[in-house]
Amino acid sequence: MEVGKIDKSNMRKIILDFPKQFRIGIEAAKNIYLKTGVLLRPPENIIICGMGGSGLPGDILVTLRPLDVFVYKSYRLPLQAGNGSLIICISYSGNTEETLSSFQTAVNRRLPVITITTGGKLEKLSKEYDVPCVKLPSPYVPPRLALGEMFAALLQVLQNHNLLDKNLIKEVSEVGKSLKSEKIKSRGKILAKKIFKKIPIIYTSRRFREIGWIWKNSLNETAKIIAFANYFPELNHNETVGFEKINEDQVSNEKLYVIILRDKKSSHSRILKQMEITKNIIEKEGVKVEFIDIEGKTLLEKIFSTIVLGFWTAYWLALEYKIDPTSIKAIDELKRRLKED
User: Fold this and answer.
1) What are the φ/ψ torsions at residue 290 (nearest 5 degrees)?
2) What is the distance between the alpha carbons of residues 305 and 295, in angstroms, rounded to a whole number?
3) Cα angle for residues 211, 59, 127 (degrees, 5° grid)
4) How far is CA 329 from the centre of its chain?
5) Where does the chain show beta strands of DSSP type E?
6) Which CATH code fits 8-178?
7) Side-chain half-sphere CA neighbours of 155 within 13 A
8) Band of the pLDDT at 121, cuts 50, 70, 90?
């Protein structure tokens, strides 16, 4: 396999260098503050507006702080957005139309807004309305793989306004030092071979639900395949029953591959038991199920080591299909046709 001919944008190097992104994001956001008097008291909630890869930092923040953070992925603003909200608009390209709509709505309502981007319209509008903007540096990489930069920038912005435990900035910096993408590479390659020509289904605990979605999204965009994700215990109140018709009236059981991302050290004992029982139930229907144990000492280490494994799995799977892992032709076509109006 001639990797260079398939991986035209050298995604391999981007994934290898992923741990360096945290420091880049922190540095870019260090001096970004709302104007004095704009945020007189801690916000009632924090609304993170972002689509696709640019929405992922918010997804991870919800994992760390689930009570007052809302991730919004559409036009305008959600119902939770009120006068006591802080709005953070993230668009890596700066040209995501849904996020631009959210930004304009926030500005029109005179809500506190901060933006994170590499440039584009969002940077221009931020300057026009005098909105604080974290300008992420070049080179431009696929947004889904710029997660480290955007997430670290988001944390630093919140820390700048005393809205985050100071230890989290230190912790994310440590992840950048301890995370060894090179060591995870081979595990992703092995898993990619197992799920080649199959439909992956990613299961997690509720705590890691967003990480399962990130795996799914990465498989969609990088490997260009259909994948699904769900979480325990909710899936055992509906989805497990769906395997009964596998190999009869739907898809062949040999075409499915279930991956359970399991945190053996900190998950509730009943969740771990549900995972074991569910594996057994699904395997009775002839579907392969594999546990992948989440590794790491801290929650952030667990999150990002698992995400990088997902990146590598999707990358190697794209190469198995002999398809460029970076290109996203369907999304590009959608954006082009939306502009035709």
Assistant:
1) -130, 135
2) 7
3) 140
4) 20
5) 45-49, 69-72, 85-91, 113-117, 133-135, 199-205, 228-232, 256-262, 288-293
6) 3.40.50.10490
7) 30
8) very high
123 has a pLDDT exceeding 80: yes
Residue 142 has pLDDT above 90, yes or no: yes
Structural Rg of the chain based on CA atoms: 20
Nearest to 267 by CA among 293, 288, 289: 293
CA distance 2 to 319: 9
Comparing 49-63, 76-90, 195-209, 244-258, the range with the smallest average pLDDT is 244-258
Nearest 10 degrees: CA dihedral of 240, 246, 249, 255?
130
Boundaries of every domain in the chain? 8-178, 181-320
For residue 184, count CB atoms less than 10 angstroms from its CB and return exposed for 0-12, middle for 13-18, buried for 19 or more. Answer: buried
8-178 and 181-320 in the same fold:
yes
Kindly report the CATH class assigned to 181-320: alpha beta
35 by Cβ neighbours in 10 Å (0-12 / 13-18 / 19+) ranks as: exposed
Cis peptide bond N-terminal to 139, omega within 30: yes
pLDDT of residue 285: 94
C-alpha span between 31 and 28 (Å, rounded): 8
CA distance readout (Å), 238 to 231, 241, 243, 286, 291: 11, 6, 10, 19, 21
Our CA angle for 47, 53, 58, nearest 5°, is 25
- Please tell me the predicted confidence (pLDDT) of residue 17: 97
Task: Kindly report, residue by residue over 156-201, the tens digit of the pLDDT.
Answer: 999 999 999 889 999 999 999 999 999 999 999 999 999 999 999 9
